[in-house]
Structure formats: C-alpha cells, structure tokens
Amino acid sequence: VGDRCYEKGMYEAAKLLYSNVSNFARLASTLVHLGEYQAAVDNSRKASSTRTWKEVCFACVDGQEFRLAQLCGLHIVIYADELEELMCYYQDRGYFEELISMLEAALGLERAHMGMFTELAILYSKFKPQKTLEHLELFWSRVNIPKVLRAAEQAHLWAELVFLYDKYEEYDNAVLTMMSHPTEAWKEGQFKDIITKVANVELCYRALQFYLDYKPLLINDLLLVLSPQLDHTRTVSFFSKDAMQHAAESRDAELTQKLLQWFLEEGKRECFAASLFTCYDLLRPDMVLELAWRHNLVDLAMPYFIQVMREYLSKVDRLDALESLHKQEEHVTEPAPLMFDFDGHE
To answer: Do you know which InterPro entries this protein is assigned to (predicted)?
Structure first.
C-alpha cells in the first residue's frame, strides 16, 4: 500500500505507512519529496544503503541543502566506483565549491582512497590553483601522479608540474620544465638536486647555458654539483666558445686580445684559431702575427692571414681604381678661351 501511495504522489500517506513498517530506505525517498531533508538524512543513516544515500544526496543538491548533501556524500565518496557519478552530479550543476568542500572533508575518513585525493588535486588545479601545491606536498604519495600531471600541465601550473615530475622520477622532464618556465618553476636548491639525477647528459650542458643566460653569478655552484657528470674537455670548450662570443659582442679590442693570450697560455690552440675568425674585425694583424710566431702557430693562423691579405689587396685595388679615375678627370681638355682682335672682334 505504501508503494502505491508513493507512486501516486501521495507522500504524506506513504510517509505514515513506511514509518509504521520501519522501511527506512523508502521513507527517506518519501521525505525528500516532502522537502523534509534533515529527516531524510536521518532515515538514510538507518537504512545504511549506498543507493539511498545517493538519492537523498542528489535531492539535497537540487534543493541547495549543501550541508546535508555533504553529510550524505561522505557515505558515497568512500566507494571508488561511485565517486565519478557523484562528482558529475555536482559539476554538471556548477557546484564546484561545494564539491571541493565535500572532498576536503572526506580526506580524513578512514576509508579515504586514492581517487579522492586525485580528484581533489585536479579540482584545485582548475578552480583553486593556489591550493594545489600544498595539497600535493601533503598527499603526493596518495594521488594518481600521471593523471594529476596532465591536469597540472593543462592548467600551466609549472611549479606543481616540476614537483610531480620529481616525485615520479621523471628528472629530465622536471629540469626541462624549470628551464622553460624559470619565473614560475625554477628554484636553485631543487634544480641542483634534480640535475644530478638526469639520464640525458646533454641536459647538463643545456643547464650550463641556462645559467649563463639567466643565473651567471651561480654558475660556479652548478659546476660543483655537475662536475662528476661532465666531460671536462667539452666543458672548457663550451665556456671558451661562450667567451669568444662575448668578446665579439663586446666590441672591445683589448678584451679580445687578452682572451687570445689566455688561450695561448692555457695551450688551447684550437680556441686561439677559432677566435681569429669569431673576433676577426677586432684584431690587429700585427698583434696576431706576433702571437702566432712566438707560440709556433703560424701555420694554424695562416687561414686568418690569407683572409687579411685578400682584404688588403682588395682595398689596394680599389684605391688604384680611384686614383686612375682621378688622373683621367685631371687630363680632360678644358674648353679653349675665346680670342678677340685689337678692335674687339672675334
């Protein structure tokens, strides 16, 4: 009889009948139709049925009774296979704040599972990004890291992305992210710790260039931690190349000469030869010749002198051409003056 009354919308009658037979699940369903949400929650507790909790929870959400909806939701989120439907119900109606509040309250439950921590992290990344990193620092071991990584990348949360890459042991990606987004993601201590763990050694040399570009005063600290992983010969060449480029861009002839002398003092013959062309227009040929002769490097410097000679000859040829043109202009016959006889006639 109670079911017939319920189906016909006679909820008051159904309420009495269900109460008499202690059918708490059907009574809870009846009470939400009567708008008696608190009583519905109380009877859901007695019914102790996930289906009933969901029905009452959704009814409370529709009635914007979010405190009561949360009480019901806490009995639903502990089941991983029920979590998605519950979240969709809230999100489809735009109740993101209320959903976040419910998941926050659920984290302390004894039966809290990975899905809850993961979905809350994703919600934070979308709607409360300022809370994402704190959440991850506390619960990174309880989230599905690949899933949260994708969410953090989509939300452009670079610091959070680095944190997760580090915990997931994807050190190469962590370093690349820090160098690509230094303003948001780079931290000195964290960078030095992670760079020593990368699998791709080429990233170490990229890190050196990154420090030269953005953190030149800290380059020595980086070299200290990278020393075991670097090829020292390649590293010296790397810095020599950078020094040559810097000298060329400085337009300082004195600095360039000192750099050449340093290369020779250190026995870096190839760097000396390379500098002759990198800094070509800042060098005095007589100075280069003297250095090359004193260090027995005339053969190594010969391509430079050939280029110098070619330029000098080209200049001489141009001067000769100009001189010849000038002489031709001087020998052009000037118009003869008009001659007049004694009486003033031509």
So the answer is: ARM-type_fold (IPR016024), CHCR (IPR055358), Clathrin_H-chain/VPS_repeat (IPR000547), TPR-like_helical_dom_sf (IPR011990)
